[in-house]
Give the backbone structure.
Amino acid sequence: MIAFCRDKRRRDRVLQIADLNGIDYLEVPGAAGCGTRLALTFLKDPSGLHLTPSNFAISGDTKPNITSIESSTTKDPNTLTLVLDSTGDFSPYTLTIVTRAKDPATGEENPDPPPGIDPQLASIDFSFKAGCTTPADCLQTGCCAAPALPAPDIHYLARDYDGFRQAMLDRMAALVPDWTETHGADPGITMIEALAYAADRVSYLQDAVNTEAYIGTARSRISLRRHARLIDYKVQDGANARTWVCLSAARDNVTVPAGTQIYSLVPGLGPSVEPGSNAAARLQASPGPVFQSLTDLTVWVEQNRMEFYTWGDGQCCLPAGATEATLNGSFESLRPGAILIFEEMVGPNTGNPGDADPTHRWAVRLTAADTRDHSGNPLVDPAILDPVTHQPVAITRIAWQSADALPFSLCLSSVTDAAHDSTALSGVSVARGNILPADHGLWIQNESLGTVPALPPEPVSGIGCNCDATAGAATPQPFFRPKLLNQPLTFAVPFDTYAPASTFLAPDTTSAAAQISLGSDDGLQWAPVEDLLEEESEFNGFIPEIEFDNTAHLRFGDDVYGSAPKPGVSFTATYRVGNGTAGNVGREALAHILFAGPAVSGVRNPLAAAGGTDPETMEHIRQVAPYRFRTQLRCVTAQDYGDQASEIAGVGAARGTMRWTGSWYTAFVSVQPGSDQPVAVTSSLAKSVTRELNKLRMMGVDLAVEAAHLVGLRIGLAICVAPDYFEGDVYSALWKVLVSGDSCTGTRGLLDPANFQFGETVYSSRIVQAAQSVTGVASVNVVTFERMDSPTPVGTLPPNRLNMGPLEIPRCDNDSNHADRGLLILSLDGGK
């Protein structure tokens, strides 16, 4: 066969000629792969050809011989059966009808077809193993492949416009030597320059793709964000600032709605600005950050200033750690859950407002605000009468959560120093109500994002001569990556209306979410998500991605992970603008509220705004992300068990040890509860530690959680009091320094349990130094200094230090109910 043709017309032509015949097809009957007969079917009845075995030649590796020919039958008049002496092998065979086959003895042959046989249909290819099982189609197809062209001489260093232009001019000089035109107006030059421009753009895109493909070279923050996501590192996009805004009410029972805008000081404007007025336009054009209220607030005049009640006593303070107080007056509008801010108004020593400490301001969330007793009677002070009404003074008892406990001592009343006439002062500090939570950011409504473009053209598929298979290609999605016109997009931590007030200004910014939603003209709403990989194909979501210039780009799904926007659909965005440290304004920075009516007479923020965090920088992502996935999440050594246990909530410190327990190792974890936990390890804490460490321990290692070994100390000091001091005063001062600490300043005592750790050595010199520093102490002598489980022998001097084992924690609690946890014995002598 000389050529392969798709349209085979020879067979039809031979059928039209009466005295011309040819081979139609050949079969190998019998068992698959073992046939010794060939059923040769002609186009016409072959009986008139008078064919003999010498008219057939078989070519192949193992050539069987034709022993005889069985004539055609009435059922198959066009078929001759050739009987062979053996079967063939797996090689391809060709059967040819010749005038005379080669004689093995004489070597004579005539390969031409006999008269009446068409030369083109005188042979046929076949296989003896065609009936054997095969996974592929036995039909052989051919394809007219295009001739291979010589590779052009390409200048691979050309990467920009000038290089591509010169490379094409050089190529044209080789292909068309007679073309010498170089003017820019020439159509050929114009075409070359257009192609050079397109090639320059493609080259830039190739370089950009290669650059953005690696975390070390990426120049786009969005690329770094996606790289970091591959190793499960969440890039932080920042968070907006938040603060407490104190309103002064001019009318009672007026509600300020959520979303009310609050602005920084603009000279010449009052505290309350009417929306839509010229003053509002000035306010909205001011460059300062804009805050918006997070909840509705009903204001009351009586909450503008609430003084503390001291029950007739003088020089009073709320100590550090206080969680309750009494207010002077019956404040019926106060409710549990309300926010109060305690504020120092004047300097305790001078009485001047300018001397007030601005750091002595603290916000609390009330858990109780009682103006009546259990019988429903108003709460009053039965011992003191109001000088105006001559009735018992009405009071209000308030309490707040322990998480909002005062971190400092708040002075309520005092006596000024001698330079200021030693005047008794009341109302040194007051409580402020009408507190509104607000955060940084301004809502922008229904900004148009454009329309989703049409689908790109389907990819072109070619069809070769007999190559009918068409490669399948996925339908591309429309490219729709809109960006917001305004920046920066706000990321906010959800506001918890029941959380302690202290947590409001110290939010966990890792939970900040984008403040944006999309709507499409087909009636669908689209929500922002951090990742689309876990979303269903029908989920209408998108990812806001922040670039290094704070521009927000929106990325949609692909109908596999999240829904893809449909061509022709228009989108609008409603989002907030305002993010990062720009919103961390100082105290007293806010001064105006956009609110109709005269109900608000004053606006201020007694506490500085906090929580504003800028988006993570690109360099920080490069440095931190590759190492974050290497965070240890298993325990191998004893130190691993201690370190991992120390990170569990409720655990103050932990130490691990490995011990052989007969058949395997057991990791014993000694736990010291945190300062907010009971001294003894509770069963719930032990279960929590066991549950968390079981996730990290190695196979074949058992786990046991036990309490730390507390070692009680017995310390005896002989104190000589100076002649000008009373023993009782010195004793109280010593007890405060060594044991109880100063509740006004929040300073712990030297022997406070929080000051001791695992295996810490206790030195007597530190105790002597602390005692000697107390005013009125003339001298200190250590009488007893020993472990309660290992007393010092009688008659020996006390040691200068006590060593602890690695799992032991020293204690000297001076708790009469638990004397085994340590005792301090002070013996005072002298004084007056």
In short: The chain has ten helices and 44 strands. Confidence is low (pLDDT under 50) at residues 463-472.
